[in-house]
Design a protein that fits this description.
binds shikimate-3-phosphate
Length: about 170
């Protein structure tokens, strides 16, 4: 059961389906979606790729923390699709825990993600060696996703509908 007064936050690697699952969940729960990458792009008037290329990843991570903290502070419970790297900073993981939000990790085999993920666009990290990058990201981040997750849902071989049902159950 998802408490009606808590945010629902989706975390997981790029390509794990956070945005799609968030959209379906928002319809089912009658909540709005807050997507941290979209918040950053709206605030800066630049794309995630432009920010990575011009200011570098550390600058992007600062914007990402602000987007997450502000989303968690929204009084109306939402479905928050948090970008894949949101668990990297200690302060973000602390903010997730402090907020009382319900955090769902969409867990995926990185080898499966390679076929699902669309490189380019807002994912400059995958421009080179997407398979190796996803595998390394999985190794680094797995314990961090686990640390913040109230619920772990495997997305491997599951449709969006099945993932949504698993979360709602
Ligand atoms: C990133 C994930 C991307 C985007 C940026 C960095 C990451 O978002 O924020 O390319 O480090 O995992 P999605 O997880 O929504 O693809």
């Amino acid at each position: 059961m998802i408490p009606a007064d808590r945010h629902l936050v989706l975390v997981g690697l790029m390509g794990s389906g956070k945005s799609t699952v968030a959209r379906v969940l928002s319809e089912r729960l009658g909540r709005r979606v807050i997507d941290s990458d979209a918040v950053i792009e709206a605030r800066t008037g630049r794309t995630v790729r432009q920010i990575f290329e011009t200011d570098g990843e550390p600058a992007f991570r600062v914007l990402e923390t602000a987007a997450l903290v502000d989303a968690l502070a929204e009084p109306e419970p939402a479905v928050i699709a948090a970008a894949g790297g949101v668990v990297l900073r200690d302060e973000n993981r602390e903010a997730l825990k402090r907020s009382g939000a319900r955090v769902v990790w969409l867990a995926a085999d990185p080898a499966v993600l390679v076929d699902r993920v669309r490189a380019g666009g807002h994912r400059p990290a995958l421009d080179q060696d997407p398979a190796g990058t996803l595998r390394r990201m999985h190794e680094t981040r797995e314990p961090l996703y686990r640390e913040v997750a109230d619920l772990i849902v495997s997305v491997d071989g599951r449709s969006v509908g099945e993932v949504v049902e698993a979360i709602l159950r």
